[in-house]
Amino acid sequence: MSRTGRLLLGASLLAGGLLLNVPAAVAAEPGPLLAFAARIAGDDARTRVVVEFDRKPEFSLHYVADPVRVVVDLPETAFGLKADSLEPRGLFDAIRYGGMGAGNSRIVLSAKGPVAVTHAEVVAEEGGKGYRLVLDAERVDQARFDALLGEQQWTGSVAAAKTDRPVAVAPTREGGPFIIAIDAGHGGIDTGALAGETKTEEKHVTLAFAKDLVEALNKGAGIEAFLTRDKDVFLSLPQRVQIARNKGAHLFISLHADALRQKDIRGATVYTISDKASDHLAASLAARENLSDEIAGVPLQSEPAEVADILIDLTRRETQAFSVNMARAVVTSFEGQINLINNPHRFAGFRVLQAPDVPSILLELGFLSNKEDEKLLLDPEWRKKVSERLAVAVQRYREQAIASGG
């Protein structure tokens, strides 16, 4: 039954006095909030942001430094806003909004410098037409902003629980299934790249492909593939890594479809982690991908202490060797079948590839900035073909990994 139908039924039952015995949890199904309009006005001294909702929103407000951001946390919200309604201006040079998972949503206001929200309230619209959230911000000095940071009782942490179970870099002959984590890049508030005229969002492209890939992989004998995210939700980079480790993954594949200023560049690229980037393109892509948590308003976390341990460092070296083997298997499987960029195996410091004990690759399927690539990325038949070639590469890598694992 549609939402309208449920509301009409509820009104009918109420009129007949029949709602008295209906549990409150059943009677009330409000669904997500709807943010249906927004506007921003101001200058480099003061800026006002207004967002209109269909129902009264509960909200909390926090600050994040390096760079300065104002984070507004909301219950699950559907953002039905016009694309230009929150074009940044005044104190803010970027504004993003979207889901954060677990029934939460977020608005992130990236500021040009230290700011303070001097007024924040929810106001009922006249005639019962909804509510508006009003935020007034003003420029402040660094000392006052530092004081605001120190006063708030909020860390913004969304890190996944750590696992105490060791994960083998390679499966043994007698082991169970070969477990693969398929990570659809971006999600929720972090849309990833946007195609030019079509405004295709990278987060939807990667999820659609990830689902096809899991299906193709699970047809293979001895393989168990799973998604780090199965819907449009935000996961921090540490969460993605830890989900793979918690599930005992033997391989982690992160999927992306970036956009470049050079619209003539196209083709797939396979990346492995390295302290030094192979080239300028790899370095710039890694820098952008590593901004995912910043975009979502998540404070950057320091590396866990265990990563500095010498034994973990030795494990990482072995992990890197396996990651390179997987990258080579992908390139070999794609050659002559799937369009590849020049020098298709590259490396850089991608944070999502940092698991010390899970071989990991990041696969740029193509570039949304290139019209030919975009068409392919949206083509179900092409996705199926690429998934099948990846499944071949995984099986080849698996055989090598089992042999190496004894």
From TrEMBL:
Q: Name one GO molecular function term.
A: N-acetylmuramoyl-L-alanine amidase activity
Q: Which UniProt keywords apply?
A: Hydrolase, Signal
Q: Is the keyword Signal assigned to this protein?
A: yes
Start and end residues of each MurNAc-LAA domain: 241-395
Question: What is catalyzed by this enzyme?
Answer: Hydrolyzes the link between N-acetylmuramoyl residues and L-amino acid residues in certain cell-wall glycopeptides
Give the enzyme's EC designation: 3.5.1.28
Indicate the secretion signal residues.
1-27
Q: What's an example GO cellular component term for this entry? A: outer membrane-bounded periplasmic space
User: Keyword Hydrolase: yes or no?
Assistant: yes
Q: What class of enzyme is it?
A: hydrolase
Its Gene Ontology biological processes?
peptidoglycan catabolic process
* The protein's name in its UniProt record: N-acetylmuramoyl-L-alanine amidase
Q: Which organism is it from?
A: Ensifer adhaerens (Sinorhizobium morelense)
